[in-house]
Amino acid sequence: MVLRPGFLAALLLIPAMTARAADQPPPTRAAQVRVVSVTLAPRRPDLIYSGTVQARTQADLAFRVGGKIISRPVEIGDHVRAGQVLAVLDPADLLLSEETAEAAQQAAEADAANARADLARYEALGRNSPAYLPSDYDKRVAASRMAVARLAQAVRQVALARDQRSYGALTADADGVVTALAAQVGQVVTAGQVVATLAHSAETEVVVDVAENRLAEIRAAHDVTISLWAAPGQTWHGRVREIGALADPASRTFAVRVSVRDAPAGTLALGMTASVDFGGADAPVARLPASALTDEGGHEAVWVLDPAQSRARLRQVTIAGYGGDGSVLVAAGLAAGEQVVTAGVGEIDPGMTLTAWGGATR
Asked: Which of the ends of the chain has fewer CB neighbours closer than 10 A, N or C?
Protein backbone atom coordinates (compact mmCIF):
# COMPACT_ATOMS: atom_id res chain seq x y z
CA MET A 1 0.00 0.00 0.00
CA VAL A 2 1.40 3.38 -0.98
CA LEU A 3 0.63 6.46 1.20
CA ARG A 4 0.47 9.83 -0.38
CA PRO A 5 2.72 12.47 1.16
CA GLY A 6 -0.17 14.83 1.96
CA PHE A 7 -2.20 12.14 3.67
CA LEU A 8 0.80 11.13 5.79
CA ALA A 9 1.29 14.70 6.95
CA ALA A 10 -2.36 14.91 8.01
CA LEU A 11 -2.03 11.78 10.14
CA LEU A 12 1.02 13.21 11.87
CA LEU A 13 -0.89 16.39 12.76
CA ILE A 14 -3.82 14.59 14.55
CA PRO A 15 -1.95 13.76 17.81
CA ALA A 16 -0.69 17.32 18.09
CA MET A 17 -4.17 18.79 17.58
CA THR A 18 -5.63 16.39 20.18
CA ALA A 19 -3.00 17.40 22.75
CA ARG A 20 -3.73 21.11 22.21
CA ALA A 21 -7.51 20.48 22.64
CA ALA A 22 -6.92 18.69 25.95
CA ASP A 23 -4.92 21.64 27.28
CA GLN A 24 -7.73 24.13 26.62
CA PRO A 25 -10.36 24.72 29.41
CA PRO A 26 -13.92 23.60 28.66
CA PRO A 27 -16.19 26.26 27.22
CA THR A 28 -18.05 28.36 29.80
CA ARG A 29 -21.84 27.97 29.93
CA ALA A 30 -23.78 31.22 29.75
CA ALA A 31 -27.46 31.96 30.09
CA GLN A 32 -29.99 34.69 30.76
CA VAL A 33 -32.31 34.18 33.74
CA ARG A 34 -35.42 35.77 35.10
CA VAL A 35 -34.79 37.62 38.34
CA VAL A 36 -36.78 39.67 40.83
CA SER A 37 -35.42 42.33 43.14
CA VAL A 38 -35.98 41.70 46.83
CA THR A 39 -38.30 44.14 48.57
CA LEU A 40 -38.83 43.83 52.31
CA ALA A 41 -42.23 44.86 53.59
CA PRO A 42 -44.46 43.97 56.53
CA ARG A 43 -47.31 41.59 55.79
CA ARG A 44 -49.79 43.30 58.13
CA PRO A 45 -52.36 44.68 55.66
CA ASP A 46 -53.60 41.33 54.39
CA LEU A 47 -53.45 39.51 57.73
CA ILE A 48 -55.92 41.62 59.71
CA TYR A 49 -59.37 40.12 60.29
CA SER A 50 -62.50 41.21 62.10
CA GLY A 51 -64.18 38.83 64.51
CA THR A 52 -66.38 38.59 67.56
CA VAL A 53 -65.67 37.87 71.20
CA GLN A 54 -67.06 34.50 72.26
CA ALA A 55 -66.79 32.24 75.28
CA ARG A 56 -64.40 29.34 74.95
CA THR A 57 -66.90 27.08 76.74
CA GLN A 58 -70.63 27.27 76.10
CA ALA A 59 -72.82 24.63 77.74
CA ASP A 60 -76.43 23.60 77.16
CA LEU A 61 -78.02 23.00 80.57
CA ALA A 62 -80.93 20.64 81.19
CA PHE A 63 -82.79 19.01 84.08
CA ARG A 64 -81.75 15.47 84.97
CA VAL A 65 -85.39 14.62 85.67
CA GLY A 66 -88.63 15.51 83.93
CA GLY A 67 -91.39 17.77 85.21
CA LYS A 68 -93.23 21.06 84.91
CA ILE A 69 -91.26 24.32 85.19
CA ILE A 70 -92.78 26.56 87.88
CA SER A 71 -90.03 29.17 88.10
CA ARG A 72 -87.31 30.66 85.92
CA PRO A 73 -85.67 33.58 87.71
CA VAL A 74 -83.16 34.50 84.95
CA GLU A 75 -83.36 36.14 81.54
CA ILE A 76 -81.12 36.16 78.49
CA GLY A 77 -78.04 38.27 79.11
CA ASP A 78 -78.03 37.83 82.89
CA HIS A 79 -74.67 37.26 84.55
CA VAL A 80 -74.90 34.35 86.96
CA ARG A 81 -72.63 32.74 89.52
CA ALA A 82 -71.81 29.07 89.91
CA GLY A 83 -74.62 27.39 91.86
CA GLN A 84 -77.20 30.07 91.10
CA VAL A 85 -80.69 28.70 90.36
CA LEU A 86 -81.78 29.09 86.74
CA ALA A 87 -85.10 27.18 86.77
CA VAL A 88 -87.20 25.09 89.16
CA LEU A 89 -89.52 22.12 88.54
CA ASP A 90 -92.77 21.38 90.36
CA PRO A 91 -91.53 19.37 93.40
CA ALA A 92 -94.82 17.52 94.04
CA ASP A 93 -94.04 14.39 92.02
CA LEU A 94 -90.42 14.33 93.13
CA LEU A 95 -91.44 14.66 96.77
CA LEU A 96 -93.96 11.86 96.34
CA SER A 97 -91.29 9.60 94.88
CA GLU A 98 -89.04 10.35 97.83
CA GLU A 99 -91.80 9.55 100.36
CA THR A 100 -92.55 6.29 98.53
CA ALA A 101 -88.90 5.28 98.72
CA GLU A 102 -88.75 6.12 102.41
CA ALA A 103 -91.84 3.98 103.09
CA ALA A 104 -90.26 1.10 101.19
CA GLN A 105 -87.16 1.48 103.32
CA GLN A 106 -89.20 1.28 106.53
CA ALA A 107 -90.91 -1.91 105.30
CA ALA A 108 -87.51 -3.40 104.38
CA GLU A 109 -86.18 -2.56 107.84
CA ALA A 110 -89.13 -4.36 109.46
CA ASP A 111 -88.69 -7.45 107.27
CA ALA A 112 -84.96 -7.53 108.02
CA ALA A 113 -85.56 -7.26 111.77
CA ASN A 114 -88.17 -10.02 111.66
CA ALA A 115 -85.91 -12.31 109.61
CA ARG A 116 -82.99 -11.78 111.99
CA ALA A 117 -85.18 -12.48 115.03
CA ASP A 118 -86.61 -15.65 113.46
CA LEU A 119 -83.10 -16.89 112.69
CA ALA A 120 -81.93 -16.09 116.22
CA ARG A 121 -84.85 -18.05 117.78
CA TYR A 122 -84.18 -21.06 115.59
CA GLU A 123 -80.50 -20.99 116.45
CA ALA A 124 -81.46 -20.93 120.16
CA LEU A 125 -83.11 -24.37 119.84
CA GLY A 126 -79.71 -25.92 119.32
CA ARG A 127 -78.74 -28.65 116.93
CA ASN A 128 -79.63 -31.38 119.48
CA SER A 129 -83.28 -30.29 119.71
CA PRO A 130 -85.83 -32.66 118.08
CA ALA A 131 -87.45 -29.56 116.50
CA TYR A 132 -84.21 -28.52 114.76
CA LEU A 133 -84.05 -29.33 111.07
CA PRO A 134 -81.01 -28.35 108.99
CA SER A 135 -83.19 -27.54 105.98
CA ASP A 136 -85.34 -25.14 108.03
CA TYR A 137 -82.19 -23.52 109.40
CA ASP A 138 -80.83 -22.97 105.91
CA LYS A 139 -84.14 -21.40 104.82
CA ARG A 140 -84.05 -18.96 107.73
CA VAL A 141 -80.43 -18.00 106.98
CA ALA A 142 -81.31 -17.34 103.34
CA ALA A 143 -84.42 -15.34 104.34
CA SER A 144 -82.33 -13.19 106.69
CA ARG A 145 -79.73 -12.48 104.02
CA MET A 146 -82.42 -11.60 101.46
CA ALA A 147 -84.06 -9.22 103.93
CA VAL A 148 -80.75 -7.49 104.59
CA ALA A 149 -80.12 -7.13 100.83
CA ARG A 150 -83.63 -5.68 100.26
CA LEU A 151 -82.98 -3.20 103.05
CA ALA A 152 -79.73 -2.07 101.42
CA GLN A 153 -81.57 -1.68 98.13
CA ALA A 154 -84.31 0.38 99.79
CA VAL A 155 -81.72 2.65 101.40
CA ARG A 156 -80.17 3.34 97.99
CA GLN A 157 -83.58 4.02 96.48
CA VAL A 158 -84.17 6.66 99.14
CA ALA A 159 -80.80 8.27 98.37
CA LEU A 160 -81.64 8.24 94.65
CA ALA A 161 -85.08 9.78 95.27
CA ARG A 162 -83.53 12.54 97.37
CA ASP A 163 -80.98 13.24 94.63
CA GLN A 164 -83.74 13.41 92.04
CA ARG A 165 -85.66 15.86 94.22
CA SER A 166 -82.55 18.04 94.32
CA TYR A 167 -82.38 17.81 90.53
CA GLY A 168 -85.65 19.73 90.45
CA ALA A 169 -83.57 22.94 90.67
CA LEU A 170 -81.38 23.68 87.63
CA THR A 171 -78.27 25.57 88.69
CA ALA A 172 -75.35 27.17 86.83
CA ASP A 173 -72.27 24.97 86.77
CA ALA A 174 -69.90 27.95 86.45
CA ASP A 175 -69.81 31.73 86.36
CA GLY A 176 -71.11 32.99 83.06
CA VAL A 177 -73.75 34.68 80.96
CA VAL A 178 -77.10 33.22 79.96
CA THR A 179 -77.13 33.34 76.18
CA ALA A 180 -80.32 31.39 75.42
CA LEU A 181 -83.46 30.13 77.18
CA ALA A 182 -85.28 27.32 75.42
CA ALA A 183 -88.06 26.71 77.97
CA GLN A 184 -90.72 28.87 79.60
CA VAL A 185 -92.55 28.76 82.92
CA GLY A 186 -95.41 26.24 82.75
CA GLN A 187 -93.72 24.10 80.13
CA VAL A 188 -93.33 20.37 80.77
CA VAL A 189 -89.83 19.18 79.94
CA THR A 190 -88.21 15.77 79.84
CA ALA A 191 -84.89 14.75 81.33
CA GLY A 192 -82.06 16.05 79.17
CA GLN A 193 -84.15 18.62 77.28
CA VAL A 194 -82.17 21.88 76.93
CA VAL A 195 -83.55 24.65 79.13
CA ALA A 196 -80.76 27.26 79.12
CA THR A 197 -77.42 27.92 77.44
CA LEU A 198 -74.61 29.30 79.58
CA ALA A 199 -71.43 30.90 78.22
CA HIS A 200 -68.67 30.50 80.78
CA SER A 201 -66.89 33.73 81.57
CA ALA A 202 -63.67 32.13 82.86
CA GLU A 203 -62.01 32.39 79.44
CA THR A 204 -63.04 34.34 76.38
CA GLU A 205 -61.60 34.27 72.88
CA VAL A 206 -61.98 35.96 69.52
CA VAL A 207 -63.33 33.99 66.56
CA VAL A 208 -62.52 35.08 63.00
CA ASP A 209 -63.27 33.51 59.62
CA VAL A 210 -60.21 32.93 57.42
CA ALA A 211 -60.08 31.86 53.78
CA GLU A 212 -58.27 28.61 53.01
CA ASN A 213 -55.46 30.33 51.08
CA ARG A 214 -54.41 32.17 54.25
CA LEU A 215 -54.30 29.25 56.66
CA ALA A 216 -50.58 28.61 56.19
CA GLU A 217 -49.77 32.19 57.18
CA ILE A 218 -52.15 31.99 60.13
CA ARG A 219 -50.45 28.83 61.40
CA ALA A 220 -47.04 30.50 61.09
CA ALA A 221 -48.12 33.60 63.04
CA HIS A 222 -46.26 33.71 66.35
CA ASP A 223 -47.20 37.18 67.63
CA VAL A 224 -50.92 37.95 67.37
CA THR A 225 -52.39 41.25 68.55
CA ILE A 226 -56.04 41.98 69.32
CA SER A 227 -57.87 45.29 69.52
CA LEU A 228 -61.49 46.17 70.25
CA TRP A 229 -63.65 48.68 68.46
CA ALA A 230 -64.98 49.61 71.88
CA ALA A 231 -61.47 50.37 73.17
CA PRO A 232 -59.53 52.16 70.41
CA GLY A 233 -55.80 52.50 70.95
CA GLN A 234 -55.55 49.47 73.23
CA THR A 235 -54.10 46.14 72.10
CA TRP A 236 -53.56 42.78 73.77
CA HIS A 237 -51.53 39.75 72.87
CA GLY A 238 -53.23 36.58 71.66
CA ARG A 239 -52.47 33.05 70.58
CA VAL A 240 -54.03 30.92 67.86
CA ARG A 241 -55.71 28.20 69.91
CA GLU A 242 -57.64 26.33 67.26
CA ILE A 243 -58.21 26.29 63.51
CA GLY A 244 -61.47 24.71 62.40
CA ALA A 245 -61.20 21.31 60.77
CA LEU A 246 -64.10 21.90 58.36
CA ALA A 247 -64.90 24.90 56.18
CA ASP A 248 -68.22 26.66 56.51
CA PRO A 249 -70.43 25.26 53.73
CA ALA A 250 -71.72 28.71 52.76
CA SER A 251 -68.67 31.00 53.04
CA ARG A 252 -65.98 28.32 52.54
CA THR A 253 -63.97 29.86 55.37
CA PHE A 254 -62.43 28.28 58.45
CA ALA A 255 -63.15 29.44 61.99
CA VAL A 256 -59.94 30.47 63.77
CA ARG A 257 -60.13 30.83 67.56
CA VAL A 258 -57.67 33.19 69.21
CA SER A 259 -57.28 33.18 72.98
CA VAL A 260 -56.52 36.50 74.69
CA ARG A 261 -53.63 36.35 77.10
CA ASP A 262 -53.34 39.65 78.95
CA ALA A 263 -56.70 41.46 78.79
CA PRO A 264 -57.97 42.66 82.20
CA ALA A 265 -60.99 40.86 83.59
CA GLY A 266 -64.23 42.26 82.25
CA THR A 267 -62.63 43.98 79.28
CA LEU A 268 -63.90 41.53 76.69
CA ALA A 269 -67.69 41.33 76.69
CA LEU A 270 -69.35 38.57 74.71
CA GLY A 271 -70.41 39.71 71.27
CA MET A 272 -67.96 42.63 71.03
CA THR A 273 -66.32 43.25 67.67
CA ALA A 274 -62.56 42.74 67.66
CA SER A 275 -59.76 43.13 65.14
CA VAL A 276 -57.09 40.44 65.05
CA ASP A 277 -53.71 41.17 63.47
CA PHE A 278 -51.86 37.96 62.67
CA GLY A 279 -48.84 39.90 61.42
CA GLY A 280 -48.28 41.27 64.91
CA ALA A 281 -44.74 42.52 65.42
CA ASP A 282 -43.25 40.30 62.70
CA ALA A 283 -40.13 41.52 60.92
CA PRO A 284 -40.55 42.55 57.27
CA VAL A 285 -40.64 39.70 54.79
CA ALA A 286 -39.74 39.31 51.12
CA ARG A 287 -42.47 38.03 48.81
CA LEU A 288 -41.06 35.87 46.01
CA PRO A 289 -42.54 33.52 43.42
CA ALA A 290 -42.59 29.97 44.74
CA SER A 291 -40.65 28.93 41.62
CA ALA A 292 -37.56 30.60 43.12
CA LEU A 293 -37.27 27.96 45.83
CA THR A 294 -34.84 25.08 45.56
CA ASP A 295 -33.17 22.75 48.04
CA GLU A 296 -29.75 22.72 49.68
CA GLY A 297 -29.07 19.87 52.06
CA GLY A 298 -32.71 19.54 53.00
CA HIS A 299 -33.20 23.29 53.61
CA GLU A 300 -35.03 25.86 51.48
CA ALA A 301 -32.68 27.97 49.39
CA VAL A 302 -32.66 30.43 46.48
CA TRP A 303 -30.13 31.46 43.83
CA VAL A 304 -28.94 35.06 44.39
CA LEU A 305 -27.45 36.71 41.31
CA ASP A 306 -24.35 38.90 41.60
CA PRO A 307 -24.50 41.16 38.50
CA ALA A 308 -20.91 42.34 38.98
CA GLN A 309 -19.48 38.83 38.65
CA SER A 310 -22.27 37.38 36.48
CA ARG A 311 -22.54 34.47 38.89
CA ALA A 312 -25.28 33.13 41.15
CA ARG A 313 -24.75 31.77 44.65
CA LEU A 314 -27.07 29.38 46.48
CA ARG A 315 -28.27 30.78 49.79
CA GLN A 316 -30.42 29.19 52.48
CA VAL A 317 -33.52 31.14 53.55
CA THR A 318 -36.17 30.94 56.25
CA ILE A 319 -39.78 30.63 55.09
CA ALA A 320 -42.44 32.58 57.00
CA GLY A 321 -45.43 31.31 55.03
CA TYR A 322 -47.04 30.83 51.66
CA GLY A 323 -49.44 33.11 49.83
CA GLY A 324 -52.51 31.99 47.97
CA ASP A 325 -51.24 33.62 44.74
CA GLY A 326 -48.32 31.20 44.32
CA SER A 327 -45.89 33.32 46.31
CA VAL A 328 -43.65 32.48 49.23
CA LEU A 329 -42.79 34.75 52.18
CA VAL A 330 -39.11 34.76 53.15
CA ALA A 331 -38.42 35.91 56.70
CA ALA A 332 -34.60 35.69 56.75
CA GLY A 333 -31.66 35.17 54.41
CA LEU A 334 -32.17 37.99 51.92
CA ALA A 335 -31.41 41.69 51.87
CA ALA A 336 -33.35 44.43 50.15
CA GLY A 337 -32.22 45.05 46.56
CA GLU A 338 -30.69 41.62 45.94
CA GLN A 339 -31.68 39.82 42.77
CA VAL A 340 -33.16 36.33 43.11
CA VAL A 341 -33.48 33.91 40.19
CA THR A 342 -37.11 32.92 39.74
CA ALA A 343 -37.07 30.40 36.87
CA GLY A 344 -34.96 27.40 35.91
CA VAL A 345 -33.36 27.14 39.34
CA GLY A 346 -32.86 23.41 38.90
CA GLU A 347 -30.55 23.93 35.90
CA ILE A 348 -28.14 26.42 37.49
CA ASP A 349 -24.67 25.57 38.76
CA PRO A 350 -22.15 27.93 40.43
CA GLY A 351 -19.85 27.99 37.40
CA MET A 352 -22.38 29.35 34.94
CA THR A 353 -22.20 32.88 33.58
CA LEU A 354 -25.59 34.43 34.19
CA THR A 355 -27.15 37.73 33.25
CA ALA A 356 -30.56 39.10 34.07
CA TRP A 357 -33.04 38.86 31.24
CA GLY A 358 -34.43 42.22 30.28
CA GLY A 359 -37.50 40.94 28.43
CA ALA A 360 -41.11 40.85 29.55
CA THR A 361 -41.70 39.09 32.87
CA ARG A 362 -45.24 37.94 32.03
From this structure: N
